[in-house]
């Protein structure tokens, strides 16, 4: 869901996600806003 605004805060989203998955990882803002060459 990249680029979509979040309605709930990250803690609420984590609690909702934990009911369906085993691990929730947050990508740091500086990594998610970097240029594509950053990931190579």
Question: What is the fold's blueprint, element by element?
Answer:
Layout: H1 10-18, H2 29-32
Poorly predicted runs: none
Quaternary structure: single chain
How many domains? The number is 1
Mean pLDDT: 73
- Radius of gyration using CA atoms only: 12 Å
Helical content class: 25-40%
Largest sheet: none
Content of β-strand: under 5%
Q: Secondary-structure element sequence?
A: HH
The total of beta strands comes to 0
Q: Helix tally? A: 2
What structural category arises from helix and sheet content? mainly alpha
Q: Globular, elongated, flat, extended or rod-shaped: what is the shape?
A: elongated
Roughly how many Å apart are the termini?
21 Å
Structure description:
The chain is an all-alpha fold. The chain has one domain (10-39). It has helices at residues 10-18, 29-32. The two termini are 21 Å apart. The model has no long low-confidence stretch (mean pLDDT 73). GO terms for molecular function: ligase activity; tRNA binding. InterPro entries: Rossmann-like_a/b/a_fold, tRNA(Met)_cyd_acetate_ligase. One of its GO terms (biological process) is tRNA processing.
């Amino acid at each position: 869901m990249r680029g979509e605004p979040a309605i709930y805060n990250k803690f609420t989203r984590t609690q909702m996600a934990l009911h369906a998955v085993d691990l929730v990882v947050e990508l740091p803002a500086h990594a998610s806003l970097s240029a594509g060459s950053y990931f190579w």
